[in-house]
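Every protein is a chain of amino acids, and every chain bends into a shape of its own. The fold becomes a row of whole numbers, each drawn from a learned catalogue of backbone shapes. The protein below has been through that process, and both of its lines are reproduced in full.
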Amino acid sequence: MDGRTIGAKLKQVRAETGLSQGAFARRLRLSGEYISLLEAGKRTPSFATLNRIASFLHKDISLFFEEKENAFILLLRGEGLDDRGRAELMRFRRYCEEYLKLEGITGRRLPLAPHYAPISAERMADEERRRLGLGDEPIRDIFTLMEMNGCRVLRQPLPPDCKVSGAFIFLEARQAAFALINASQTAGRQAFSAAHEYCHYLRDRGDGPVIENPDVFIDELVSLYPPREQYAQEFAARFQMPPVKVREIVEKDMAGKRLSYEDVLFLKRYFGVSAIAMLRTLRDMGYLNRQQFEQFYKADHERREKELFGSSAEDAAGAKAGVLGLSRRRAVPSDRFKLLAREAQRKSAPAKNAKA
């Protein structure tokens, strides 16, 4: 927030009320000195204080924010974005607008998660796990976890030739965050992508919209992108696969033996991640040498998983969604979105009946 812009607008709207700084401060139960500092741009108010002032003035809080281009306009201007990608992002935009409309009708808004200061990706992942009370256990439903912590999610199938693999946007004036996840990916890959976007939400939400190119999720190519993408990759791996838990399972159940590809698939299913993400974590922890990693990397992971366990994680996720193949052909609104839509429908029913 720009303190000078907020101060100028505060001074303008206060003058319109006909109240002096002192009288205005007393009505808000704030000090006259504080209001003076705010109007001079020497202090920046908290969001709670701004909300209090806006409520008193019967204004929308967005009045105090710097006039800048709509976040969606910036998103749609993304570098290298083609017409196909732009069309997919427009679908995402409509979902976001509908979601906020439903929250307005139902009066149900969730507070934002903390905005983390610059620390290492590993430390941030550990601190967020502690904040959420997750311990070292796997995250069974990261999409719901994100939603309940203020980052709304849409899983939308994106075509292979599209240069968009996901997106994150934060609407500052509305204090609302959204993540787009490519539903054409496998279940494990979607979960990892979600953790990646969750990192942007926790750390980068004030830095503008993010469009993910598929290359961002490739270890050898992520270094070509802004440093925040490498950071988000490191966070996602640590957040989903805590080394303490990986080490505990490997040394308890697989100690004294060389890890097999079947062991990797077991761990992949346990943590609910993609085989590639699991392989990279085991390599980085020293449980797989380079030769093993390259050999396992080339395998047909979904086919091998079905042969060994009778089904793949993708089959299980598809069954849960009630559609074939993990709903890779249509968008998957979040459970919370569906809940709000149902509640909004019930609220509108009495009004329609009354008119009838």
About this structure: The chain has three domains: 3-64, 71-239+328-339, 243-321. The chain has 18 helices and five strands. The longest strand covers residues 176-182. Confidence is low (pLDDT under 50) at residues 316-327.
